[in-house]
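Much of our argument rests on the idea that a fold can be written as discrete symbols. The record that follows shows the chain in one-letter code together with its fold in token form.
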Amino acid sequence: MFFTIPTLMTWTRIVAIPLIVGVFYLPLEPVTRNLIATVMFVVFALTDWLDGYLARKLNQISSFGAFLDPVADKFLVCASLLVLVHLQRADVFVGLIIIGREIAISALREWMAQIGASRSVAVHMLGKVKTTVQMVAIPFLLFDGSLFGLIDTHLWGTGLIWIAAVLTVWSMVYYLQKALPEIRARVK
């Protein structure tokens, strides 16, 4: 199941990372770079929904795809956050909170899987809301301009990325609370 249509779409998110980062090194007008990076991020982020839909529709769900999908999402979000921090469009603390949480929860999930308690840290709606807010905030910050002459994407993106950071901490606390009984049972 390494090369099914859904898995190939997941791989495109990983391949997209150097392309999105590379756009900011091209000798283009800043507005053009911002637009290209934003469109690329949105297109590749939409493959997250589409690959899951196709995997279910085509009956091509696999354990490899289940592993690769969240890894691709985390790579795409973390790389984009690092670009935004570098461009001074996102605060370094936001980057540290979001990236740190991703590392901590990934490690927690791996540990829970090793001890047979992965259900205690299964994906929760709070994590999905956090991801959705991030996926809206990041393209706003990549665009960094006025959308349709009405929406200040930097202002909205900044507000949303801070909301995402709060949701990130909240979801991390939630997952840690769910895992705590299992952790206590195994700590001697």
